[in-house]
Amino acid sequence: MQVKRFGVLFLLLCLVGVVGVLAQDDVAWDASEYDDDGCTVLAVGKDATVDGSVITYMTADCQNAEMAWHYVPAADHEDGEMRKIYIIRQTQTFAPDYTRPLDEPSTYSGVEIPQVAHTHAFMHSLHLHINDQQVQLNESTIGGRRELRNPNAIMDICNLEQFALERCSTAREAIQLMGALAEEWGYSRTDSGECLAVADENEAWIFEIFGVGPLWAPGVSEGPGAVWAARRVPDDHVAVVPNQSIIRVIDFDDDENFMYSSNVMSVAVENGWYDPDCGEPFDWSKAYDPRVWSNGELITPANSRGYYGRQWRGFNLVAPSQNFSADTPLHEFPFSVKPDEKLSLQDIFAINRDHFEGSELDMVDEFAAGPFGLPNRYPRSASIDMDGDETAERYYFGRPLQPFHTEYTSVCQSRAWLPDEIGGVLWLGMGEADSTCFMPFYCGITQLPESLTFANHWEFDREAARWAFEYVDYVMLPFYQPTLKYVQAAQDRYEGREIAEVAVLDEFAAELYEQNPEAARAYLTNYCIENANQVVDAWWNLGDTLIQYYAHGYDYTVPGRKGSLSAPEWYIRGMIEMDELEPSP
Fold this sequence. Notes:
single chain; alpha+beta; 2 domains; six-stranded antiparallel sheet; five-stranded antiparallel sheet; 12 helices; 17% strand; globular
């Protein structure tokens, strides 16, 4: 492989990295380091869905990252053409082709590798999500041990996603390629541990990866520059990743359901994280991502106020008969569960919109939700001295499957009975899931709506689709429960219509595809753009309507009549007690 190597430079960087790690506090792992942002992932096998499709989703939970969406077309490349590798951080704005950061062209790594003859088309935003071969990727940061981070590595999760969707036509190929590239060039330059739900039309996998520490440098060090493992989700099961490793015990005799790097156990043994003579099987998750607070207490969904309870909640939603306890330590949950009933797309949307309603961690029915049941928590966590003894304690205020800072949710669907360009569908929801509308985009389309291709956190723009959904979400904030019923009615109307239309489109497009694939792709492109434009317009109108209905905190929903919104009695009692109010004469 023809490459550019800078061995001496990497050695110097390696020494700098070592100094940085040695300067850190002597804490093996601290959960609080990773609680600021984090995406939730769900993966559903084909026998766990109503129609036999494989589905994965993620919530993009970074409040200042990329929001624009881009379509990158397939391309053919000349013999001898090289592919440059750029250092890409998740929070950057990317060039539309995703090969480099848009705002930092100087981040070329100094490495280039041979280009392949053909690269696949794909759709991306903050992460890459689905290509024209129905390969899906959805991401969740899992953190892991600090000692594994490596500022000298070339590869990060965005680079690996990029190569996987450009070059691979199955989930297994994608995992093997990402693992090989990370082993050769090193992983974790700007990222900590990462997880990807990797799927195609036949199977879903959970892929997890860590660096091997700052002593490793590409072109200089021996051995793999990353440690990784992947576990297949059983076809009739559901897996949930809530910013923690879930792979657990690796069965080294099961090549059908496990893949891993050659150093998967040796790195843990060398660092004292696993004793091969202990008599216990090797638990990948406990070795590389131990889930304890810095004081040694095991983390449970209950003692983190649900922050790490998304796996528990996801399992309880799909398999309530198993009655999982919120007091269960995180690493004692199973890798995946079989749902009590097969899941539909609407079920997946509903899971994503959950706020622990009806459970012991309910975020709507508690004082922090205010008089109108707002599930958002500001801040999400805090260290505060409650006893006046100058000892700050850490408090968590709830973190559901989709939090208030969600940029978008990508629900990817792959279906084996259709041609790839028709079988793969990205259902995109901009903003928070509870206030958005999911819109379908077939993976065989040739462009996206113009309004999706630009967005800016710091500039309101009525031409950008993103702001239509943020607008509705913002209007809902003061009167969440009264406005939610109107949003849900709009979701039922438009999402129900889309699902019905897609069922008809699938059949028609498949017939057309047999005669003229390009005509079928053009047909689907026109539908997806027109539908998205209608939904965006509808959400602008919905925001306008909600402002009209609840201006000044009054109820103007009935023409000609004004009613007053009133807080419930329990909240009024709380105000009287907190503010020490006296009754009026």
